[in-house]
Amino acid sequence: MPNAQFTSQALSGTLLDAPHLQLFASRDLVQTRMLVGQVMKPHRLEIHGGSQQLASRMHHMTLGGVALSRLKYGAEVDIEPGCLEDFFLIQMPLAGHASIESGSQRIVSNANLAAVISPSDSTVMRWSADADQLMVRIDRQLIERAVSAQTGRADQEPVRFELDFGWRESNAWRCMLLYLSTFAANEIDVVKYRLLVANIEQLVVSTLIASQPHNMSELKRPRRMAVLPRHVRKVEDFLREHAHEPICADQLAQLAGVSMRSLYAGFREYCGISPLQYLRNLRLDGARQTLLAEPDSNVTSVAMRWGFSHMGRFSIEYKQRFGESPSQCLRKPPAPRR
Questions:
Q1: Are 44 and 67 within 8 A, CB to CB?
Q2: Mean pLDDT of 19-41
Q3: On the chain, which terminus has fewer CB atoms closer than 10 Å, C or N?
């Protein structure tokens, strides 16, 4: 494994800067917005303050479901892509900085701190005039398929990574970037070497998942054909019957006849989540059933009925679990009676 000093020096200004990879160079805002949008997605791009001169340049290479880009605007810009929807994006400033708000997370990325933007989180950014960013774009399905294989759960909520990523501290990530930059610099025909490209996809995806925490990191593959321990089954049954009532963790441990530590360990081992998260999911399920069954109700009253007092957090958790907002669910026509 190359040492940190070597890899930090190698990840310098020449990375992904070969002439054959240059996609465009422009001083025109509309043209820049359009060309970047073709590589990423349509978005809002404005020069902050409006008085600076744009001097944009982008290098780009696609490797199957993974793409490498290097982008600079030469002016302070505001960027609003909304939800990326179809891909994850890792932004690593080689120079300058960027303030990023994605979902409920906010950071200022710099030469040591990257941003991992998840596709289901609405995002807005401001890049400094000297920002020069190396970016890795990964198709959403590649990440979600890999996480599903690790957890054994095909019905999981959308994968969300922590936004801040100390990428230079990860030997595996830095070495992977060096390999990709060497590959890109050699003008290899990616159509001819499809198996190699598939291996690159797997390398990038597995390295990110291993290097950066995400909301599925704590989940383990559930035990197949395993019988639930009596205390876990007893608490599960109780939660399903009393999800609409006030419940605390101490009460559950007393009911199960085990320590709090043993109760939590049992749930994480056999269910993949804590007993209180299990209860929260039951209540989210109950709220959804109520919204679907009572189209004349309102989201706030239903949320309060199921024990959710923070409307913003309720909406976020609801969308993470069901892929739509509570208000979208409420607008659905009721299912026909049989």
A1: no
A2: 94
A3: C
In angstroms, what is the C-alpha Rg of the chain? 24
pTM beyond 0.85: the answer is no
Supply the angle between the helices 230-242 and 260-270 in degrees, to the nearest 10: 90
Q: Are residues 177 and 53 in the same domain?
A: yes
Alpha-carbon span 27 to 75, nearest angstrom: 10
Angstrom distances, CA of residue 114 to CA of 13, 86, 179: 16, 20, 19
**Per-residue H/E/C for 198-246:** HHHHHHHHHHHHHHCCECCCCCCCCCCCCCCCHHHHHHHHHHHHHCCCC
Please report how many Cα atoms fall inside a 13 Å half-sphere around the Cα of residue 194, on the Cβ side.
1
DSSP of 241-298: HHTTS---HHHHHHHHTS-HHHHHHHHHHHTSS-HHHHHHHHHHHHHHHHHHH-TTS-
Say how many C-beta atoms besides its own lie within 10 A of residue 134's C-beta.
22
Torsion angle of C-alpha atoms 167, 168, 173, 174, degrees rounded to 10: 150
Q: How far apart are CA 143 and CA 216, in angstroms?
A: 11
Cβ pair 167, 15 in contact under 8 A:
no
In this structure, the answer to whether residues 206 and 236 fall within a common structural domain is no
Q: How far apart are CA 37 and CA 35, in angstroms?
A: 5
Residue bearing tokens 């054909």: 225
Stated length of the chain: 338
Give pLDDT tens digits for 268-322: 888 878 888 888 889 998 888 888 888 888 888 888 888 887 777 788 888 888 8
Domain for residue 104, yes or no?
A: yes
Question: d(Cα 111, Cα 100) in Å, to the nearest integer?
Answer: 14
Residue 257 inside a domain? The answer is yes
